[in-house]
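Q: Hi! First time asking for a complex rather than a single chain. Here are the components, and I think there are two in total. Is that enough to go on?
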Amino acid sequence: MKTLSSVAALAAFVTASMFAQVAIRGGTVYTMAGAPIKDGVVLINNGKIERVGPSSEVTIPASYRVISGVVVTPGLVDAHATLGLSGILNIPADQMQLEKSDAFQPELRAIDAYNPREPLIEFVRNLGVTTIHTGHAPGALASGTTIVVKPVGGTVQEAIMAEGMVAFTLGQSVTSTYRNPGTSGKAIAVLRSEFIKTQDYIKKQSAKDPEKRPARDIKLELLGRILSGDVRIIYTAQRATDIMTVLRLQKEFGFKLVLDGAAEAYLALDEIKKAGVPVILHPTMSRAYGDMKNVSMETAVQLKAAGIPFAFQSGFEGYVPKTRVVLYEAAVAVANGLAFEDALRAITIEAARIIGMERRVGSLEAGKDGDVAVFDGDPFEYASHVCAVVVNGTVVSETCH
Amino acid sequence: MRHRWSIVAIASGLTFVAVTAQEVTTVIRGARIYTAEGSPIENGTLVVRAGKIVSVGDRSVAVAADAVTVDAAGKVIMPGLVDTHSHIGGGSGGDRSSALHPDVRILDGINPRDETFKKALAGGVTTVNIMPGSGHLMSGQTVYVKPRPARTVEDMLVYVDAEKTISGGMKMANGTNSIGEKPFPGTRAKSASLVRQLFVKAQEYRSKVEAAKGNADKMPKRDLEMDAMLEILEGKRIVHFHTHRADDIITVLRLQKEFGFRVVLQHVTEAYLVAKEIAAAKVPCSIIVIDSPGGKQEALNLNYFNGAALVREGVVMGFHTDDGITDSRLLLRSAAFGVRGGLDRTEAIKALTINGATMLDLGDRVGSLKPGKDADFIILSGDPFSVYTHVEQTWIDGRKVWDRSNPEDKKYAVGGYEVFPSDVALDACAGGE
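A: Yes, that's all I need. Here is the structure of the assembled complex.
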């Protein structure tokens, strides 16, 4: 009996901490769905946002735990990372972001490699990041299929929100890593041939006689899903030449595309706009070398002016910082001309939209996931702190970072 | 004949212009001035002439009638930043033939036209310690330069002594950075042993030099390695020691105590764990601020509060870029992250300026705004630690050498097509992965 009651108490405790009722109160609440609310309140119940509005209209029930801050935003969305695959130690045993045995392995799945206990995940979570599109790194013709996760849970099943995209790269980062292809021209020839092979595979698979159908091939199966529009390509291309080549390939095969990196996007704005392709822009503070030699801190503001949807990313780093922080990258873009709320959009609702998660995260609206970041000042100021973070209605951090 | 005359005419014309510029008094009015010497001055006046600071004070400062006035109302002025550890300039140091290169000078590899000097100016850096390496126990001799426009590297040097014999320190490293295949050490203890052997040899060389008492016949055979080591033993050449982990920091202090060299601890990820010991040894620390911890085992405990922890114990503390590990354009940001980690703002200003100057033995020439010191300063659009603040102008030796309002200068602040044709010096500093 005693045992039973303590089990019940434990169950009640677990339920309470998982589905606590939380009220977040902020001097300014940026909902990203309408104008900012002065002295706003966000009620979270059972993991989901219940209500958002000014404190004059939203009464906080007595049972709700209250967290207050100067600025409240939706939990931040990192539109492209390698977190959980590229570990903090940076030794071969914890670097799972790039398989070098072959340049073209789109069938490798991030879900089979993601380590939810990787310390850098908690690090970015403490800085307000609550949704991460992560997986294999740029650097291969196709390096793998990404996932979207929340920075919680002890297993990938607990963390995962959805399958992501298939990561492709064009540029010298590929040709310097692999013997084959040795040039970008050859890279495209290989890809076109793979897609043509896929078209043939799909055709044969629809044969009426099961005997005549080809043996199952997980790579061609995935490429088939790309060609049918079931899964998108996130294509890392930094130089304008490579961006144009990717757009040409997309026109030929009609796959759904998100441009990634795009360091020289400022030289191809009209073409990107015309193709209707969103951009997950390189980190603003990226170093100028290799394919990114011509990187500019003003590209975000140029994408905005051109009307091209874009989001920020933490990206991949081979050395230090082992992960970047989207909050910081957006901040430096604001310093270089991007409007405050446009930058905030690019790490919340716009990022969510580009990775296909806008119905669940990216803004503070009733029914959406209870993901919130609480700041003690202007979120982008160097000396401000993220003082509370809520994921799925659970307070995961209450220390100022 | 006519041709030769015209050259003379041009040459004398240039000389005339240069002399005039030297003799003009310039007064910069209206800014909030952080001198790094005392309290900030509101609506301040900064007077410079012939490359030096004449006076600094409030609006009542007397100014020569013919002075050229620069209006800086609403702006912020502070001393030019001192970057105590950088790899700009396209230079290189010791190669993989040895773990110890006391004879190698990065001076001999620097390109004064390298565009990374413009990047430093865009970040407000006016004095920089350019280091060779890394990946060695001793990568070679560093140089102290001002990133001013120059035809030769000699034009950029800043000397620590009146005789103009020393304009740099010595780069050393421990921990995993200098561990490798032979002839590099394989362990930390072996690393320390190789360093001790070199210093013991240097002590013996010094004894022979002293015994010779100036008699050229009795002097030991000249040895370039020992020449540099002697400068270290005599305290003329400061050792800049790359070290991350607390135990590695303590090892540096142990070596320093045994051989008595002057040292600045560089990077110091875990200094906060041994701040008391560092303070007791009276050794300054220059911190690298990285956005996230890790990237290597030694940097797992990297944090933003390291600087605040050191100041609390009374350690002289500064920041550096280690460009291209972090970016010369973002040195102010590094100190701002120190503020995020609890560092007092006044201490953060000193950390970027006078403390760094002291670490390079240049504290009596640069690093603060004081009459008689070099007129090296920056004009900012606002609070030094705000993300929204830009370096608007960088002045070295009383001359404006970078101006954000000029597109040809601004491009170095933001980047873009073919702005930085050389790759950043990432390989040079990554070493010892």
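A: Chain B is about 30% helix and 20% strand. Let me know if you'd like any chain examined more closely.
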